[in-house]
Design goal:
Length: 205
C-alpha cells in the first residue's frame, strides 16, 4: 500500500466509524455527544481492535465531557465491514453509557454525580441491544497468525481439591492462600482449599 493509498484508506475508515457512531448516538437519544467525540488511530494496539474513553470535564460550561475512540492501525485492515461497524458501535456505547447516566434534563452534565464504571455490564449491553447487535466482542482477527499480536498467557495455579479438574486461581490468590490469609471451598464439590492442599503451576492462554 502506497503512502497515498494508506492515508486514503484510513481517512475513509475514520469517516465510516464516525458515521456509525453518529447513527448510534442518534438511536440512543444523545446526538450532541458526537460534537465532543474524537477519533484516533493507534499504532500500539496489537490485540485489541479499538477502545474508548469517556471523560467528564470539570471546567466545561457546555456538555461537560468528551469521548475518544481509538482504532488499531494494524488490525483494522484485516476486519470485515460488519466487524468494523459493530466495533464502532461497541466503542460508542462505552462513551454513551456513562454520559447518559450523568446528563441532566437541560443537556448539561452533572458534575457532582459519580460516573459509574459500566464496562460490559447491563447499561452497555442495553445500548448494544437497541442497535440490534449482540453484546459481545466484535473482531475475530487472529492477530497471532498475522504476526501482529502475541498469545496472551497468564500463570495460574490449580489446586487438587478433590474434583476432577481441580480449582484454579490467579497468582495473587495463590499467594494469599499460601500465606494463610484466606481459605476457599471449590464451587463444584465444596472441598476445602488451604495452604496444605497440593497444587500445580501452569499457563492459561
Amino acid at each position: 500500500m502506497s503512502p497515498a493509498d494508506f492515508l486514503s484508506f484510513y481517512k475513509e475508515q475514520e469517516s465510516l466509524v464516525k458515521g456509525a457512531t453518529q447513527k448510534a448516538y442518534d438511536k440512543w437519544g444523545c446526538p450532541e455527544l458526537l460534537d465532543t467525540t474524537t477519533f484516533e488511530w493507534n499504532k500500539r494496539f496489537k490485540n485489541r481492535a479499538a477502545d474508548a474513553c469517556f471523560t467528564r470535564l470539570e471546567n466545561s460550561f457546555n456538555i461537560g465531557c468528551k469521548g475518544v475512540i481509538r482504532m488499531s492501525i494494524d488490525i483494522w485492515p484485516h476486519m470485515g465491514e460488519q466487524e468494523r461497524y459493530e466495533t464502532a458501535v461497541h466503542e460508542a456505547a462505552h462513551i454513551a453509557a456513562p454520559y447518559l447516566s450523568v446528563r441532566k434534563s437541560d443537556g448539561t452534565v452533572c458534575m457532582s454525580r459519580r460516573v459509574p464504571n459500566f464496562g460490559h455490564g447491563i447499561g452497555w449491553k442495553q445500548l448494544m441491544w437497541k442497535m440490534g447487535l449482540e453484546a459481545t466482542r466484535c473482531h475475530s482477527v487472529d492477530t497471532f497468525a498475522l504476526g501482529i499480536g502475541k498469545r496472551r498467557q497468564t500463570v495460574r495455579f490449580t489446586y487438587q481439591c478433590g474434583c476432577d479438574k481441580g480449582m484454579w486461581c490467579s497468582p495473587k490468590t495463590h499467594e494469599k492462600i499460601q500465606k494463610g490469609w484466606v481459605t476457599f471451598k471449590c464451587k463444584k464439590g465444596r472441598h476445602l482449599v488451604d495452604r496444605g492442599t497440593p497444587f500445580t503451576k501452569g499457563l492459561k492462554e
